[in-house]
Design a protein that fits this description.
It is built from four helices and nine strands. By secondary structure, the chain is α+β, with helices and mostly antiparallel strands. Strand 6 and strand 7 form a beta hairpin.
């Protein structure tokens, strides 16, 4: 029998109605085969990232960010395939330039206590502890989390000098209370993995 892995997904959007983009993405997380969506943080507003050499704020809209906890029987690479499919379905176009505006960005922040380094993945996400729009919603879900490095999330949050963030919306769960947020097979109409 396959085991379940607890994973945390970072979500971000600053184009085409970002709140609805995050809402739709959270709904789709609950439809990924062999995955169970457990909790979703509030939707936080944050300023776009700027490079260390940039003096001015980037000329792009603010972001909406959230973190979702899922449990999955997929391995990390398969989960990444599913997340990229959701991004594609919601109009994501990929660019080699960093920190560009986007309809949707989905990142695997943590995958159990695994540390993964491959051509496609680096888990834990290498910048997660430096970003208030990741650590603050993650702490909302699980303030007692122990990171794969052995440090507690609470300690990391207390050490950081983060600007506070404002919650502007919350996930509106479309599944009736009492039902399990789990999918074990492809819903009708889902496309295959992107090439």
């Amino acid at each position: 029998m396959k085991t379940w892995t607890r994973s945390f997904i970072g979500l971000g959007s600053n184009l085409n109605d970002p709140v609805q983009q995050i809402q739709r993405a959270c709904e789709q997380l609950g439809k990924i085969p062999q995955c169970s969506r457990k909790k979703v943080s509030g939707f936080y507003i944050s300023e776009p990232l700027r490079s260390s050499s940039a003096a001015a704020k980037p000329n792009q809209p603010n972001y909406i960010n959230a973190v979702a906890e899922i449990h999955t029987q997929l391995n990390a690479e398969r989960l990444l395939d599913e997340l990229q499919q959701i991004e594609q379905q919601q109009g994501r176009t990929r660019s080699h330039k960093r920190w560009q505006s986007r309809t949707l960005d989905l990142d695997i922040l943590l995958f159990g206590d695994q540390q993964i380094l491959s051509e496609r993945l680096q888990i834990p996400h290498p910048e997660m502890l430096n970003r208030n729009f990741v650590v603050i919603p993650l702490a909302e879900l699980t303030n007692d989390l122990i990171l794969p490095c052995g440090q507690s999330l609470r300690t990391a949050l207390n050490k950081a000098d983060f600007e506070p963030l404002k919650i502007v919306a919350n996930f509106q769960d479309q599944i009736q209370p009492g039902t399990e947020h789990i999918s074990t097979s492809n819903p009708q109409g889902r496309r295959g993995h992107p090439a």
